Fold this protein.
Amino acid sequence: MKKTILTGLRPTGNLHLGHYFGACQNYLKLQDDYEFYLEIADVQALTDNFNNPEKVRVNVYEITKDLLAIGLDPNKVNFFIQSKIPEIAELTVYYGNLVTVARLQRNPTVKNEIAQKKELFGNSGESITYGFLGYPVSQAADITAFKGELVPVGEDQLPLIEQCREIVRKFNSIYGETLLEPVPYLSENKRIKGLDGNEKMGKSLGNAIYLVDDEDTIKKKVMGALTDKNKIKKDDPANPDVCMVHYYHKLINSYENTKIVEEECRKGCRGCVQCKKELIVAMNNFLKPIQDRRKKYEENPELVEEILNSGTKKAQEKAKNVMNDVKKAMKIDY
Ligand code: TRP
């Protein structure tokens, strides 16, 4: 029998290269060999976007189209919408007893997010809701509702998987062996840097290249990318290791081309403008097949609807079975 994968994405914006080279490339790699549930986590997105439901709704479809565009096969991957699986909400309530408030406050990912919010919205601790603080509990419900064994994620998600494992152990120790402890699956490129040289590519950082970016947008972004600050003149020798243009050549261009970029840069016989222009071409070539595939779904939104419906149906069946086991174990199977 195939092992089960459960993973999810918050529908708050389009996918960028950070997502692609982070978790999404692994989705592609794993889709053939697992029973694969891919959750569009609208409930989780609402925990900090509850006052902006339209944004979440739009992005449910945007992110699904992005995921189909990268080449995920809806015959292999069950795409589903979190809010359509009431068992997840139900499990979240029961798991709430198995985790302390202090433990949630210590979760490094949640802690980071709270710090970021304080930076953006001022230092009022009251702006952190019960729902937001508790989203790791809900994420543990996401994973365990499908007895997810493997969870392909970016490294920022590790504390959430760890918290899920703790909840599973606690549940099993009290109510008997029922749930599975999931294992995270990380990509080789742990984290993709931004165009500005920031360690992380992110929407809120304004340094991302999106899979839907058109040629003009790519041009503007690449032209503004960080290069070696010590290179003043076109024929100064420079250090490609500190240059984001080289970094992206390495990511998406061929090995041979990247080698040339590197050698010429070090020797001082390659201007940054030329190098950026070559990157723009390579980037557009890289994005073209993704955008071509996306077009089919943009022109036929009913296809996306069908894919979400059929995936959600499969997810509902699976979650119902797991919920029965949980209720039996908890002696609430009236
Ligand atoms: N927290 C993830 C994110 O921020 C999304 C997510 C929701 C998820 N449920 C999940 C990831 C379950 C892995 C497993 O993108």
Q: What stands out?
A: Strands lie at 4-9, 35-40, 77-81, 150-152, 183-185. The mean pLDDT is 95. The pocket of tryptophan is lined by residues 6-10, 39, 41, 44, 139, 142-143, 151, 153, 157 (CB under 6 Å).
